[in-house]
Amino acid sequence: MRLSARQKGIFEKLEKIIKAGDPVPTVAALGKMFGISQQAMSKNLKVLEEAKLIRRDPRRHRSIELIKPPPQAVIINLLGRIKAGLPLEAVETPQTIEVPATLIPKGESYALEVSGNSMIDDGIFDGDIVIIQRQSVAYEGQTVVAVVNGEATLKRYYHEGHRIRLQPANDELEAIVVTPDDEFEIRGVVFALYRRFNHPMSFPVA
Questions:
Q1: Is 43 a catalytic residue?
Q2: Is 136 a catalytic residue?
Q3: Which of 83, 109, 115, 118 is labelled catalytic?
Q4: What span, in angstroms and rounded, lies between the C-alpha atoms of 33 and 67?
Q5: Which pTM value belongs to this model?
């Protein structure tokens, strides 16, 4: 919603008053500050409410509260590069990356840079950033960060009786089959994909 210059000024004034801990003015008093009537101020405050910038209780005279907007971006750990091809030794060298808040799942999460082309049919390409929801279980067909015998890989997960199949999304590559004799761990499920153009990462690939 587009605010007028006056509405922006009213919000900034309210923000300054509330952050300073001063008493919240009445609608009439706020109108006097801006040289407008109480009715006109009420209309402007209504616009700020509709824009979800403030909240008011109609039963109280001094009930204006600021609504904290959701973060536009979130900083999460970037734990290194994972091979979307042959397994790569697990790398966890914490750095950070800023990604849109809408890409972050509830609970614990982290990011990895993708190396390789085994997931290209799912739209995951070399250099992409995958946002991972950290968990130790997965449903059939979900794309997971799996560690097999100490090596990490990004694949679709399928549990088939006594074995696990880690399936690439590339018909030219073969699946990784995990047997009971192998050490196996799921370290998360892909929640979102974040692609940054012309911004190469600097993690070494083993």
A1: no
A2: no
A3: 118
A4: 22
A5: 0.62
